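# nightly structure sweep
# worker-07 picked up a monomer target from the shared queue
# config: single-sequence mode, recycle default, output format = structure tokens
# input follows
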Amino acid sequence: MLNIFWKEISEYLSSLIAYVVIGVFLTALGLLMWVFPETNVLDYGYADMGTLFTMSPFVLMFLIPAVTMKMFSEELKTGSFEILAVKPVSIYDIVFGKYLASWSISIIAILPTGVYFFSLYQLANPKGNIDIAGVTGSYIGLILLASVFTAIGLLASSLTKNQVISFVLAAFLSFLLFTGINSLANINVWSDLSPVLSGLSIEQHYISLSRGVLDSRDIIYLLSLNAILLFFTSLNLKWQR
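# output follows
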């Protein structure tokens, strides 16, 4: 597993796509947080990173599929996955190694946004007047959210040999699980089922973590969803083996 992890990490960091993904992510959030008038934090009148944590999921649901789209699609297309599959390593090790590598790229993209927090901390009046607990919870939620989007991207990549289809499918599933289910729950036709549907939405658990309260139910939900997605990815690859 570790060999696969280091192989994927080294390949990404030696290619242009990783730096493009990280650069686009940071540029998009930087513009939203500091430049665009409707979301500019400088116009709020108080130190708040709500823009970053509100907009990040929608940026990540397009950028993470760009990282994961070739993880299995390319290997299935070229036949190199068959070579990898006959080596003395389990399917679960292959999937988890690629998962950790893709998730690590996402975390590397998120970490530099700490500069935004430091800037607001210094600009606040008085200095340091910022909700540190809320920011910490939001970062934990964002990193866990990135892990779920990564697992979705790997599942999509294992379903098709076409990288473009993998990207579109991953972005669609990420949107559906993040906010689509919650939108469906708000339609007044489900009656007693609405709270159940809402509870299945990733967005609700992400918002809960963003309040700075690390509820074990939210963390367990996101980790369980990860496990389910990775299990189905492994199962699908076993069928194709």
